[in-house]
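Whiteboard transcription, Tuesday session. T.W. wrote the structure tokens on the left side:
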């Protein structure tokens, strides 16, 4: 573990200075899961949620959130993202889990990484799934939001060994 870098000489919060860091290709993947009843999952698959296409709306929400991460997380740098993608998978009750897996992939060419952008994109997509479906099921649960992979930067690459 390295030294915390978000504190100045007076022990107050600061945005890390990345002026002298080289601009490199960077990427991050985050994932999460929205637990729900099989009936709710069926409604999503069949387009039966009255608010509309759940996954299309969640995808746009996740992309929009990634682009605004620096407005939500105080010490994040505004980053010119070069790509954001949100993908979804279904898990049926037969898998002992029922719901939607969400995976957010974010890319940039810059001086700092995009881990927070991927995490925010994933969390926002999951919250949007909840919002779109809450009229039919209020006890859905969101969990497992975590960084799965990151590439580029001073600290090198990272891959989680136990993905969802």
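and on the right, the sequence the group agreed on:
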């Amino acid at each position: 573990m390295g030294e915390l870098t978000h504190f100045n000489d007076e022990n107050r919060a600061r945005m890390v200075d990345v002026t002298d860091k080289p601009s490199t290709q960077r990427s991050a993947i985050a994932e999460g899961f929205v637990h729900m009843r099989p009936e709710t999952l069926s409604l999503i698959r069949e387009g039966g949620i009255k608010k509309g296409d759940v996954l299309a709306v969640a995808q746009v929400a996740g992309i929009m959130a990634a682009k605004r991460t620096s407005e939500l997380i105080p010490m994040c740098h505004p980053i010119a993202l070069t790509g954001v993608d949100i993908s979804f998978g279904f898990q049926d009750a037969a898998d002992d889990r029922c719901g939607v897996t969400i995976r957010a992939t974010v890319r940039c060419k810059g001086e700092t990484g995009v881990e927070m952008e991927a995490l925010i994109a994933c969390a926002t997509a999951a919250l949007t799934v909840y919002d779109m479906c809450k009229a039919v099921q209020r006890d859905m649960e969101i969990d497992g939001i975590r960084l799965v992979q990151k590439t580029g930067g001073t600290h090198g690459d990272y891959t989680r060994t136990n993905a969802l």
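Someone added at the bottom: Residues 115-133 form the longest helix (19 residues).
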